[in-house]
Amino acid sequence: MSSDTVLRQEIRYSLGYIRSMIDGYSGLYPGENLTRDVLRFCDGMTDAGTPHPRLQEARRLVEDRCRRLAQDTDRFALRDPAAIAASRAQAMAAVDMLQDVVFEWRRARMAVPSSGRLLRRKSL
Fold first, then answer.
1. Close Cβ partners of 10 (under 8 Å, ≥ 6 residues apart)
2. Among the residues of 1-124, which ranges form H helices?
3. Which of 7, 19, 77, 101 has the fewest beta carbons under 10 Å from its own?
4. Per-residue pLDDT tens digits for 58-105
5. 88 Cβ partners below 8 Å, 6+ apart?
């Protein structure tokens, strides 16, 4: 497998935890804070101190969509199943976009192996 495929699988696997948090979020328990938990995990994946504009934009979108899902599933609000499903789908789409941005960012940070050694071999 190529390094891009391995990297993509690693990122998809890591973000699977966020997807399961979004999928299982009910908003019915007082200790739940979806936005905080998702952002903490995102920041851990992307070295939050790195100011990369696309990463910040993707993170902000995930934050907005998770907040919206939390508002739609609030246990004290009128709960509309269609609105909850739409918010959940939008949050998942934001995570998919974050996955693509993290892949591009991490691939750009990977060191490219030097081909100089191959060019210096003697021909037979």
1. none
2. 3-24, 34-46, 53-72, 81-109, 116-119
3. 77
4. 999 999 999 999 999 998 888 899 999 999 999 999 999 999 998 888
5. 22, 23, 25, 69
CB atoms within 10 A of CB 40: 11
Residues in the chain: 124
114 pLDDT exceeds 60?
no
**35 band by pLDDT with thresholds 50, 70 and 90:** very high
CA-based R_g, the chain, Å = 19
Residue 100 CA to residue 55 CA, distance in Å, equals 10
